[in-house]
Amino acid sequence: MDDILDASYYLGGKAAEASKTLDIVIGSGDIVTIDELPEDPQELITFLEAESCGVKYWVLVAQAYASDGKLQEAVTIAEKGASRDFKGSERDQLLVLLASAHFEFVTRSVDRAQHLQKAEESLAKVDDTHSVPVLVSQAILHMHKDEVESALQIFDRLLKLDSTNCVALLGKAHITLSKTQSYTNALKIYQQVLVLNPLMKPDPRIGIGLCFWFLKDRSMAINSWTRALEMDQNNFKAKLLLTLAKFDNVFTNSLSDEQFIESYKEILQETYKLHQIAPNDKVILMVLASYFYSKGDYDTVERIVNRVITSCSDEMAAAKSSKLTPFTSKILSQGSFWLGRVAYARNDFTQAQKYYHEAIRLDDKNLVAKLGLGQAQLSRGSSEEAIITYESIVRTNAKSLEFHYALGLLYAQSKSRSKHEQAIQMLERYIRLSSNRGLAVANMKQDEAYLNKEPVVLNAYLQLSQLYSSKDISQSLSYLNKAIESRKQIGSDAPLEVYNNIGVFNFIKNNEAAAMENFNIALNMVHDYKIPEDTMDEKAVSLPSDLKAPITYNLARSKESSNEAEAIDIYNKLLEECPNYFSAKLRLLFLDAVSTNKTSKKELEEEIKELLHSHASNLEVRSFYGWFIKTFGKKIGLKPDADTQHQKETLVDYDSHDCYALISLANIYCVMAREVKSSKEEDKRKKYFLRAIDLFTKVLSIDAKNAFAAQGLAIIYIENKEQTKGLDILRKIRDSLNDISVYLNLGHVLVELKQYSKAIESFEIAFVRFTNSSDPKILSFLGRAWYLRGLAEKNLSYLKKGLEYSEEALAKSSTNKSALLFNVAFVKFQIADFLSKLPAEQRTVEDINEAIGNLNDAIADLNHLASEDEKHPPFPKSELKARANMGTNTLLNRLNVCLEETKENVSQLNSKLEEAKRLRQKEELKRAQEEEERLAALKAKEEELAKERAILQEQAQQWAEEARQNLVAESEDDDKFLEEEKTEGKKKKGKKAQANGKKSGKKGSKKKKDFINDSDGVESPPSEDNEPAEPVLPSGDEEDEAPSTKKTQRKKRTVADDDDENDEVDGAPAKRRKQFKSQEIVEDSSEDEGGEGQGDDDGLF
Fold first, then answer.
1. Which helix (H) or strand (E) covers residue 703, if one does?
2. Which residues does the annotated region (Disordered) include (predicted)?
3. In a domain, 511, yes or no
């Protein structure tokens, strides 16, 4: 971070050059040039005093010493100048310069407390405390004293006075960046400074680059520092920041080891050059410490760190201050961190933990120190402490990759299920965070976007796969595939164990083709495995053969269902290579026992006994022998309790916690309990069940996820009429155990609970998923479930479905046909009985005929089962014969009666339907006739109306012709009357002129009076209430208003006249119309002669 001000700010770039030669004007006007500054500033002080030089030259000389690095000489000159008789602003200049020199001492950590006090004393002596230089110095003083708020207030005050004050802006940007960490706001202020003064010292581009770096825009940060270096090739901080940025780039974005090594060497060379320029720079020393640690040169690391610590201690002693600056705290924290790593590498975990604690105390944000602390705690066996450490970090650093990964692994090591869930959450979040390291991704190219992804540690995928394996095999398999993809992205391949595990999971999911593919890949990797030439590790030498045997066995196991012969060949080859691999031998014996039958069961027993003799303590061999005795013991003449004795021997002599033996004994006790039928022996039955419960419970205490033991408990609940508890357990087992027995047991208990549709679903899953669709036992279960559902829901189609499944079970069965034949006959009887009890309207003739035929077949089947030819009837023959007789004598007669009733009912129903059809047709015919009559009447009425309209139209035309003729006659009368009125008017004018020659001014008034008198004898027009319709005026009449009431009346009369003309067909008298027209013309003539009435002309026709 750049300081707010330094010597370059006081002098400026040009001033720094000019300070090498000083031109001083003396009192005589001559110019004295000083080429070199004397070692003793007293010579120049004497000279300045003797010549009475102004304050300008005192300041110039002091700046020259400061720019030359001679701060004490600059302080001496400034103090001497301030003690002279300068007043006001001149003296203030020297005091501000003096304070600035003390600030430079503080920056260099030279007697920090003393120089801060002297700077404060200098500023206290100024006269104008409100001047800009003084305010700037006060703000810097506050910043050095870590009084950020006070400094910020002064900077804001300066900016109110002058918003372009670059020093105030730079100080505010510094505070915003380092204290508030508001990088966006700081960036805007730095950019504002750059616009105002591109040549500003310190260079605002350094701050701009830092803001971009913290905002995750690394390219813009590098561009800013590069530009700062172009502006000043000696800018050490720009060089240092660019070097650190290159280190970051090479550590995070190298695509290969070769690229990393080449780039790392180049950056180390640049770091060495910087070290030569500033051999005591602490940041460079920390970088070199990391390099020597990576080389394993721990002694050099310790020497470097101790050198840094000593330097910091000396600076604090020189500054006479016990308070660490933020920079010093961070440097010392890094030093303690590297000392902790060195101690950890030397297996001194206790000392390492102490160093990490010290690093965290000095800088609480030192995350790598916290990571090291957790590792040290874990190495000391304090896993709980490590978890607490990492949890506290994750709470405050939600996007930290390393801590999520470490915490996920620690959670996974716990035995708690809740911790396992937390492990899954942490590791999955780690993978999501790795996809985006938090860098800016807008407009990012494909290569850059790829670099923005942090490579995921392979162990994270493997750990997640292991955590999911106990609850979600599909998800576990998904993470193994992602592990392979992550290795391929970097041009590598996953370990062969990953492919083997993928094959195992696919085999469990019955995806045998995918399983074989992955097993073959793993085998090929075993063949291609190369043992290092210089290795002395026996395990590495024997690794290929150790891995080949189990993978080969897995491959053969996956081929058993698709190609049994090839699987047997693989087992035999495996036994040739590994004769003691008894798992392969057991599979060969199992296939011979259940499939190929090449060897007799007696010979198989001898081979198993021989294998058991050589591996007496092997529980897998003992379990297989127990299965063989239980399955084939009766056929080879073994004792009934041979299985029980063998399992007891296993538990007593070899392993009392053998789960297979415990479950086998528990199942035997369950069978013994079921065989107790007498109610008198109920206590004995409960005793057997309790023993079975004890054994199943013991298995679950050994293996809490043993689904077979849990299923045994569920069966006991169901046997004791607690179906709901048993059902709950079976449903949980279904989610973890993919076995046919689970679905069959679920089907049985659901049938008992009368949930027939769900029971059918379970049976169908077992039938389709685990058999080749030809298992007669499951078909029989389906037939029974459909039959019971049909009875419960009184649905004949369900009963028929049950009959279909029962017949299919009989057809596909090769043994025990008598029981299945009885089932078919029984269902047929039940269908016949069901039909006989149905109401007549719900039966059909076809169903009854079919039932009669099936009933006859059932009677025949029962007679066959009751005959002497049947050796193993399912029930006593007498009962079978009685049922057959009942069918013949009773049920068959009832069906025949039902058939007649149904036929009669169908006949009656058909008659009713025909009658209803006839009535409906009659009703429809009646409605059709009524509709025709209505249409005919409507048509006649329309014709009559048409005739009336024609007559009215003809009459209207006649009236229109008469109106036209009347209009012509009126026009002729009006013309004649107009001529008479004109003649009479001229005569009146002559008389009035002779009698009233001197009263010509009243002529208009008299004429108006005559006009009114003339109108008095005219008959009034009809009122508006009697008008037949609204008048239609000529264009323009609606916009003109009459100037007087009388004129309006005239206009109304004209309109009334028009109305009368238009309504002549209504009988208006022609005389009235003629009078109105004449009156209108008279008025018009009178007004023309008198010169009045203008403006009313637009309202006349």
1. none
2. 963-1101
3. no
Distance, CA of 1074 to CA of 1060 (rounded, Å)? 10
Q: Please say if the pLDDT value at position 18 is more than 60.
A: no
Instruction: Output the pTM of the full model.
Output: 0.63
> Domain check: are 936 and 849 in the same one?
yes
In a domain, 1019, yes or no: yes
* Domain extent for 1019: 1007-1099
pLDDT tens figures, 548-561: 889 999 999 999 88
Indicate if 935 and 871 belong to the same structural domain: yes
Q: What is the signed CA dihedral for 276, 278, 282, 284, rounded to 10 degrees? A: -40
Give the chain's domain count: 3
Same domain, 834 and 942: yes
Q: How far is residue 549's CA from residue 543's CA, in Å, rounded to a whole number? A: 11
Q: How far apart are CA 5 and CA 167, in angstroms?
A: 8
User: For residues 412 and 463, is the Cβ–Cβ distance under 8 A?
Assistant: yes
Is position 709 within any domain? no
Per-residue pLDDT at 505:
92
Closest-CA residue to 324 (of 146, 583, 465): 146
> Are residues 837 and 936 both part of a single domain?
yes
Residues 942 and 1030 in one domain: no
Judged by DSSP in three states, 637 sits in: coil
3-state secondary structure of 24: strand
1026-1066 per-position pLDDT tens digit: 444 443 333 344 334 433 433 334 333 333 344 443 444 34
Residue 381 confidence (pLDDT) above 50: yes
What are the contacts of 1001-1005 at 24+ separation with CB within 8 A?
1003/1090, 1004/1090, 1004/1091, 1004/1092
Asked if 688 contacts 644 with a C-beta cutoff of 8 angstroms, the reply is no
According to the model, what pLDDT value does residue 500 have? 93
Of all residues in the chain, the percent with pLDDT exceeding 70 is 83
**How far from each other are the two terminal CA atoms of the chain, in whole angstroms?**
101
Residue 1016 and residue 925 share a domain: no
Q: Which of 240, 213, 234 is nearest to 224 (CA)?
A: 213
| 925, 836: one domain | yes
Same domain, 837 and 947: yes
| Structure tokens, 11 | 């002098």
Domain C-terminal end among 635, 666, 701 = 701
Please give the average per-residue pLDDT across 390-401, as a whole number: 88
List, in order, residues 6 or more apart from 806 with CB less than 8 Å away: 779, 780, 783, 784, 787, 820, 823, 824, 827
**Dihedral angle over CA of 1047, 1048, 1053, 1054, nearest 10:** 80
* 788 part of a folded domain: no
